[in-house]
Amino acid sequence: MSAAMLLKLPYFIYKRYQLMNGSDIYWKKKIGNSALIVDGRTLNPRAQALIALQGKFSPPVEQWTVPMLRGGYNKSMELFDGPKHPVSKIEDLTIDLEGRDLKARLYDPAPEMTDRPMMMYFHGGGFVIGGLESHDRFCRKIALQSGYPVLAVDYRLGPENLFPAAMLDALDSWEWLIRNVQRFSANTDQLVVGGDSAGAALSLLVMGEAAKGRFSAKPATNILIYPAMMDAPETKSRQMLGDKDIVLNKDLLDWFMGNFLDDSQTGYKDLLSPLKNCEKGQIGPTWIRTCGFDPLRDEGEMIARDLEGLGADIDLKEYSDLYHGFIGVSAILPDVDRMIADMVAFMKAKLARGRNSKKAA
To answer: Could you give the 3-state DSSP secondary structure of residue 215?
Structure first.
């Protein structure tokens, strides 16, 4: 850390304490007339203050490097995503695939249980940053609140592994889970796929390919947190929010794609349009959450419409005053834990309905 950054450290510690402990009324007054308002939505004052604080410690775009952003992302999660809640069983394991091995982490809150649902989770990070550590706290919470084992997948990232590496890893990991489901005492008919941002895009790919009959088991339920469409047109939300100070903006989106996409891989273009040619009625209930201050907001809504057109049961909600990436700041925003509770309630209800339907049949 530079001398200049060290001098700022006491200020950072004080502001972090204020963010964690100041009342909503305090932050609303503090932000006051400087509140960010776009498209009829007002950014959560505490979130706006957090973004401003992080901005004081962020280098300019021209100085960004992959190691720098990866380290900063993990550090942000460590500082702002609350405690690491204990889980009965946490195991680092290897997903052995053809030609490569992937790291993964199992969070099992009830190892003694059998014949149960299980989630495979893909982390966000623009296909360039993020991993098992960045989303460790988040996956613990899902496992603890649901009672289901959660398997987080450390898929390959760019620029070391360009498109379609992450996509192939997601598809092959799902197939691996189906083959190894007994290892986790899980029920093949009760598997869930989920992810945030880039991870939600990978989940959407798994859903789409499963709907086309690629796998012997389809996700029973799907979880998409501010999902991205790889083939999305220029949307209104990208135009309106791309130049705003809201963490994910045009600069970061362009940087991510510049470190991941490989235009020469034309043979894999279909992986960028996962719902194309899907058979109607083959996609399970899907929970989608978007944010008002997210350039990808419209893409989440487009995905919801496409899935409804394919006959899927959709639960779509927008957090109008929050921003892309908010799931990593649960120590600051109580909305994160409320969102997880909502997600878990959806999964439990839909999985129970599916299990009862199979029994009746």
So the answer is: coil
Architecture of domain 81-360: 3-Layer(aba) Sandwich (3.40)
Across the strands, what pairs with 317?
289
Structural tokens at position 135: 């989303």
Cα-Cα-Cα-Cα torsion 265, 169, 234, 277, nearest 10 degrees, comes to 80
C-alpha count within 13 angstroms, C-beta hemisphere, residue 258: 9
The length of the chain in residues reads 361
Indicate if the pLDDT at residue 350 is higher than 70: yes
Give the count of beta carbons closer than 10 Å to the beta carbon of residue 29: 11
Q: Where are the domains of the chain?
A: 3-79, 81-360
Q: How many angstroms separate the CA atoms of 38 and 32, rounded?
A: 15
Residue type, 323: Y
Could you give the CA distance from residue 142 to residue 150 in angstroms, rounded to a whole number?
Answer: 7
pTM higher than 0.90, yes or no?
yes
**Is the pLDDT confidence value at 355 over 80?**
no
By the 8 A CB rule, do 115 and 103 touch? no
pLDDT of residue 232: 74
- Strand blocks (E) in 208-277: 221-225
Distances in Å between the Cα of 10 and the Cα atoms of 17, 51, 184 are 11, 18, 46
β-bridge pairing 89-97 and 100-108 = antiparallel
Hey, how many other C-beta atoms are within 10 angstroms of the C-beta on 281?
9
Alpha carbons 323 and 106: distance in angstroms, whole number: 28
